[in-house]
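Support request, please re-run this one:
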Amino acid sequence: MSNDETPIRFGIIGCAEIARKISRAINLSPNSTLYALASRSIEKAHNFAIQNNLFSDSLKIYGNYSEILDDPFVDAVYMPLPTTFHLHWAILAAEKKKHLLLEKPTALNVEELDKILDVCDKNGVQFMDASMWYHHPRTGKMKEMILDSKLFGQVKAIHSSSSYAPGLEFLENNIRVKPDLDALGALGDAGWYCIGAILWAMNQTLPTTVTALPNVARNSAGVILTCSASLYWEKEETVATFYCSFIAHETMDLRVYGSNGTCYLYDFILPFGEDSASFNFTSGAKFVDLHIGWNVKPHVVEVTSQLPQEGYMIQEFASLVKAIKFSRSKPESKWPHTSRITQLVLDAVNKSIDTGFQPVHM
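Re-run finished. Output below.
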């Protein structure tokens, strides 16, 4: 088999619920294969493989995380462990030369993430966080239209939201509300998407100031269940806000307002369907005479997709790994940078909350 045809062999470390989706994506992607699966017990890994139709004679199953990292045939690992465990296991993976697809939030703070990224860099390992929506072809089309100065003008304001209300069982028992497992709560889980979308619209430029808003709700253990924040870019005179929550109805909104256009969508994190996704785009809208209507209506832009967005993510990640493995390319720096500035803003929101909603200067 030629290098062009050789699939990247993935190992999954941890049998979290999201691993079901990513294991499917690995098998759908044309340049990857699910080679190994590890959990804290061989029984749990074995049951996960059977329940998700993954079990085969070729699938390696391990009863601890170290064994999968010691397997010389594993090229890359997907790691959906609780955030508290990322620092330890991500560093071990990078030291074993395993390319790293790390579930978000990437770390408890940017100091931890920098340690992970430093080891990845020293070992020539590709790093990417598992924010799937970046990889959907719709996202590229939106960016193309937003960057068109005639169509859109300059970005002036942004709003994003990510909320869902999974119920009492989740709020009492899920790892996302446990301070020893995922201490960032809704800010880390849902807010990561909101912050990432805002920075994406601003071409990954850090804001001048970040200010949390006083609508924070916490559980009895102190984990954030709801929060909001505003971001401001002084040079661009651009403002952004976001809302994230575990106790509000499902929203995945992204609205970008330009000096000559607007872009709206209601499913930016998870498209309504796998075959296509759309967004509303308006350019040059004005009120007609007597203000009895508009001169244009929003245009619905439909973008088809051959893979689910997580399949595109795996395909891109595997392509980067393959270039490193067979062509001696260097890891793509775009993805570690994207994760790092998202983590920086997330940290700033946390700091603003802790200081009584004072502005944090970046």
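The longest strand covers residues 209-218. The first helix runs from residue 18 to 28.
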